[in-house]
Model the fold of this input.
Amino acid sequence: MSTQPANDYRSPLARYAASEAVSRGRIYPEPAPACRGEFQRDRDRIIHSAAFRRLEYKTQVFVNHEGDLFRTRLTHSIEVAQIARSIARAMSLNEDLTEAIALAHDLGHTPFGHAGQDALNACMKEHGGFEHNLQSLRVVEELEERYAEFPGLNLSFETREGILKHCSITHARTLGDIGRRFLDKHQPGLEAQLTNLADEIAYNSHDVDDGLRSGLIRIDQLSGVRLFQDQYEEVLGRYPDLPPRRTIHEVVRRIINCQVVDLIRTSSSLLSRANPASIDVVRKQGRSLIGFSNDMQEKHLELKRFLRKNLYRHYRVHRMSAKAARTIRSLFDAFINDSGLLPDETQRQTAVLEERHGTRGKARSVADYIAGMTDRYAISEYQRIYDPGSAS
Ligand code: MG
Done:
């Protein structure tokens, strides 16, 4: 008789899971990989990309040089992958695809987090805008230069579908099959849906941890936030003598766990009611089949609102964001007005896009260059361009 707990193995995929057998494949057909699956290959290509390595030095909330223990985009992406894989495995969904989507989901992020993205979007207003989600797709479809046979990483449709979480109708029209679902108001596969929520679980929880560690938020401020308070009281009741740091970590891990468990239970019952026969039936649903219970959804939003008000808008975060925005704007202005300031290779790419698409192409190339920068590269590039005393 087996003594294994029920979820300690990989059960066969659910019939509504993504699978290689029903994959819509790659843009450039390739021979099947030896000794690994197609979605494993996607995951491996993402890990070996330059954009993935750059995530190590890109801001989540705290700029990289503010402290070694704060989350960066890289550790965030790894935490998202951990949470998303747990959910996928428990629900008999495709774990390899889920991991690939999670590791790639932030590849298009600019330096300096959301402040950087907003600033670059403003610079690109006349040239088609800038959206990090679309940029992630652009990175894996065009910007990575690693393979002789094709541009980008030539990932499977399902991985690209998962990367493109949202998209305006205008952009969707230009994206072919990958943009189709935004026009048809369809859903992506379940692996994409769950990774989206794993992202939210990860950043809500780790931003509480980082916020407390930095001293920008305090435990007493969180007393009205149920997701925190419920767990905090339980931990204090059980372990009244636990030192503060261990208490916080115990609370944060419980915050993650209770959301994950709620998500799995709620989604499993949604799925058993909808009973989709395949991933294509999932795609045609009018709504997502992965979600929290109403109670957890409210608590989740309450924590999000708390973080927005008390952490993301904290004056010290805001100062950093304001500096970041100025840095991005100044770099954009310098390069768009004088592309001779760009490094040789980028100048060549800019000339190609300008020839093809005019000013819009030139601006896109400058945005690609800036979006690809790490926080510290953007800071030193700014000094090299604007500080007369700095080496060029
Ligand atoms: Mg994310």
